[in-house]
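User: My collaborator sent over this chain with a note saying "see what the structure looks like." That's all I know about it. Can you take a look?
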Amino acid sequence: MALMLSLVLSLLKLGSALGSVPLISIMAYVDRGIQLLCRSSGWFPRPTAKWKGPQGQELSTDSRTNTDMHGLFDVEISLTVQENAGTISCSMRPAHLSQEVESRVQIGDTFFQPVSWALAVKVLGILCSGLFFGIVGLKIFFSKFQGKIQAELDRRRKCGQAELREARKHAVEVTLDPETAHPQLCVSYLKTVTHRTALQEVPYSEKRFTRKSVVASQSFQAGKHYWEVDMGYSTWWYVGVCRDDVDRKQKYVTLSPNNGYWVLGLKKLHFTFNPHLINLFPRIPPTRIGIFLDYEGGTISFFNINDQTLIYTLTCRFEGLLRPYVEHKRNNGTLIVIGPLSQESEREASSQSAFTTLEAYNSESSSQLATPFLPRSDEQDESHLTFFF
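Assistant: Without extra context I'll predict from the sequence alone. Here is the result:
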């Protein structure tokens, strides 16, 4: 309070205080005009504030004066100008002095560019038309693209069906060798593999795998051979062939051709090694795999029996004995069945009713816990106990 009184007394002694240079701002567009605001602060005594036109004529204005905490005056005056107003000035002058402080602004035509609604409508119409035709064009493009994809899928399926029919001409009998099975794998009827939680008491054998694997009794060193493996709904498995001389006591090994394995696997995704990991994306997740080995041709092909398509073909120059290979990694109650192509499987493949038949047969055979994929027929001998889809 004492400071303010001291300042006021000083001002009274001096007689006046010049304020700041007026600051002109454009506030808004009002009634097809522009509202200007002129501000200046730090005056004593209160100044006379005016708006002037291009010829120096005074313009009507609205003013407002405030006093700050030091007793000095802050002045605001506003003005609305129309198009082509020219140079507009704002001046502040103390009441007892002829000296004034002034600022100017040039109001040109650019501030009043008319909005052409017709043009805006035309532009909007063009944009909407472009968007519409763009959407239609994209739809046509994607339709054609989808058609090409479908045509390619149909072509591949037909090729796969033809290759599968040819492969099935070389169907062979395949039985599993229990002496090679990991102690947690139970082999039934030499065809079915069940994964058990507890280890079984089994005799020691140099042929037995320390991986949860088993190989067939049959081996191939020439010719063409085809068999099928039904994995049911197992979620972790490997099927294919391996060299007879692989190190069966090596538990952790990549199942790649470099190590003597040619397999297709499932662990979240379907994959194979050639020799490095290759992720595969079958159109329909297979529950049955057809395996076709062409020894002299140096190929092993994996077919999805569910939709009659070729999944992948591995190419290699084979040497030595090869044995069908199965690895069952997860105990989820699912059986894996290996065997030759049966007449029932051929009929199901032709009619493409695999899922329906599987569901119906599983329902019928639910009481046979040990071998749910085997037919219940007392008239068949043991060599025909495999029901293969």
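A starting point for your reply to your collaborator: The first strand starts at residue 23 and ends at 30.
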